[in-house]
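User: What would this chain look like folded?
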Amino acid sequence: PLSVMARKECSVCYGDKAAKDFLACSSRCTHEVTACKECVQKHIKSMMDKGQIASARCINSPACNEVLEDAAVKRALSKAEYERFSRIGLMEGLTAMKEFRSCRNPRGCGNGWVAEDGEQYPIMTCNVCRFKSCYIHDSPWHEGLTCPDYTFQLQKDASGDARTQHWLAQHTRRCPNPTCGEVIEQVSGTCDAMIHCGLGTDQCKRNPACPHPLGCGMKFCWQCLGYTKDRQSSDYHRDGCRYK
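Assistant: Here's the prediction, encoded as structure tokens.
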């Protein structure tokens, strides 16, 4: 008699899948494996797009809080995807270091580095775009002013213009869509995958003066300003971007 391949329902997509198509997220999990490999893969890619790999947990049980094991990630992703996962993980670890700084090119670069001697040598030149940033102020370099002078200027400027420009450089981007270009503010704590000229998945704010009242529909990366019209795509980051 022919043997019948065991099948079961995925707890995430509710698809009827062969038992061999399910994937355990960690060897430490003690519960049943209920999520299919495809859903685990989508979960990992979503966390990659958000730059939150360290927050990627098991999805086989709502009560489980185990971190995804590297072995599970390797089984879920292709070789190229796993390499991208590793790069993002490295950048995520670096950004947790107090000496880490990102390139402050307002056009978006996505590059970053650890400046161990930043206090002594505050001028940082990006090795990707050659833009100069300030380690002390974590901002574009203040040409013609020493760091103490720049700090004094920010404190002295009663109009707040210098501080406003500093804030804009830190917290805003222009939509990379050539037919839009609207200035966008990112709400604190949101992810870097933006959609709709700022109306992103985390309800980012949009300038009310935007000529596209529903947003231009372009999906882009807050860090490198790579963009695509395909909202499901994750392959739109520029070379050098932490999410590439």
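The chain has a mean pLDDT of 79. If you want, I can go into more detail on any region.
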